[in-house]
Amino acid sequence: MEDLNGFLEPGMLVMHPDRPEWGRGQVQSNIGGKITVNFREVGKVVIHGARVTLILDSEN
């Protein structure tokens, strides 16, 4: 499966498409398809970029 999150860089704001209750998150790192995001409501989460396509927040 293709990683559609390859363009994400630290500092960008994103949302998880299946977890809107997590709120907005800030990308901490994007290394080898593993994206670490600090979400407002749940803290840091590591996301496999080939499985979940994060939604870029409009404030970027």
Structure commentary:
The protein has one domain. It has strands at residues 13-15, 25-31, 34-39, 43-48, 55-56. The chain has 60 residues and is mainly beta. The protein has a 5-stranded antiparallel sheet with strand order 4-3-2-1-5, with no helix packed on it. It is 0% helix and 40% strand. It has no helices and 5 strands.
Low-confidence parts:
none
The biggest beta sheet, please?
5 strands, antiparallel
Q: What's the arrangement of strands in the largest beta sheet? A: 4-3-2-1-5
CA-to-CA gap between the ends?
A: 26 Å
How many individual helices? 0
Quote the beta fraction.
35-45%
Helix content: under 10%
How are helices and strands ordered from N to C?
EEEEE
The count of DSSP E runs of length 2 or more, i.e. the number of strands, is 5
Structural class: mainly beta
Looking at the chains present, what oligomeric state does this protein adopt? Answer: single chain
What characteristic shape results from the CA principal axes?
globular
What are the SSEs and their pairings?
Blueprint: E1 13-15, E2 25-31, E3 34-39, E4 43-48, E5 55-56
Antiparallel strand pairs: 1-2, 1-5, 2-3, 3-4
